[in-house]
Amino acid sequence: MKLSSFSRPQADTTDGSETAGDSPRIGIIAGTRVATTIGWRPIEEVKPGDRVLTFDGGLQEVARVEHSKLWSKAKACPRKQWPLSVPVEALGNQTPMQLLPEQPVMLESDAAEDIFGDPFTLMAAEALEGFRGIRRELPDASTEIVTLYFETEQVVFANIGALFLCPADTSLAAGGDEGTSETYSLLPIERATDLTRIIAEDEARRRDMAYADEN
């Protein structure tokens, strides 16, 4: 999957400075904590050169950090850009958090292993709407988005157990070839929505069976 295919604000943010533009599609909402060499830190405090714990690559150095506002236009933020509110434990997170609709999220499930042969599936967060209590939420105008860039795409740990994909800094790729950064595959939105429905149905069946056994 090439994250460059997603919309992002145009900005010179090599020094981690803040910019304001249209709603970014890839990034993590400020306040979310990521695992670093000095413990769990709010993502807005991470700087280029810091090392962050990743799912496949261990500790990886952050190449670039981009700061943007969720929505900077005078008109109201359209609902399709509203972040998703994630309750505690819905995605393994130990505190509530918010996700941008098109932020790639890694979800682990038995259903994915049965269908795809791999329990871990990467999907856009919008496919999770209605799943485990996840819902859209009208954003605050001051909401800040932070995008961490690595030498290659990396899945990072957030709020203890959640897993988010961060893009590669393609300016570091040899010859500027963005294809060299492609590492992970994103499940198409239709299949992702179907998968979350299957997982939800399976969880409901298990709850019903547990209730029946108790009674």
From TrEMBL:
It comes from the Bacteria. Residues 1-25 are annotated as: Disordered. Pfam families: Hint_2. Residues 29-159 form the Hedgehog/Intein (Hint) domain. InterPro entries: Hedgehog/Intein_dom, Hint_dom_sf. Residues 1-17 have a biased composition (Polar residues). This is Hint domain-containing protein. It comes from Palleronia pelagia.
